[in-house]
Amino acid sequence: MDKTNRRKFIGTAALMAAGTAATAAISTIPAIQSGNKYPVVHHVFFWMKNPGSKADRDQLVAGVKTLNKIETIKALHVGIVADTEKRDVVDHSWGVSELMFFENLEGQAAYQTHPIHLEFIKNCSHLWEKVVVYDIAEA
Question: What's the pLDDT score for residue 14?
């Protein structure tokens, strides 16, 4: 194989490997999976009692992450407000968010009364002043 063809081959192989890696990464996000295995989404936004307290925010984030032990939760994403541009349509007023994926409504209902969820509420409810929940079913 001459140098020109070898470079093209190596370049093509590198692009294919990068594409495969990107596809594999995207396919691990439940909402993007083909056939959407987890059609029930539970999205919760927390407004902090002390919005300037990083310690309180970090405690709530840690508390939310304990919910991942609940077997009916198939995927959990915990986040804080992103420092994106200020626009009228973007709400930056909340502090912590949890995004959960469930296989079905029964799994979401089981989560609501699960002892780990109840313990989370007991241990962390003093940190928030407001909670808004969006439950979403696949259309």
Answer: 42
SS3 50: coil
Predicted pLDDT at 70: 98
Kindly compute the dihedral angle of the four CA atoms of residues 19, 21, 27, 30, in this order, to the nearest 10 degrees. Answer: -140
Which of 123, 113, 128, 124 has the alpha carbon at shortest distance from 46? 128
Residue 102 has pLDDT above 80, yes or no: yes
β-pairing verdict for 75-80 and 128-137: unpaired
Task: Please give the biggest Cα pair distance in the chain.
Answer: 69
For residue 101, which amino acid is it? F
**Cα 6 to Cα 17, 93, 119, distances in angstroms:** 16, 54, 60
- Decide: 60 and 46 in contact? Cβ < 8 Å: yes
Shortest CA distance to 75 belongs to which of 99, 97, 57, 52? 99
pLDDT 10s digits, 20-57: 433 443 345 545 444 568 999 999 999 999 999 999 99
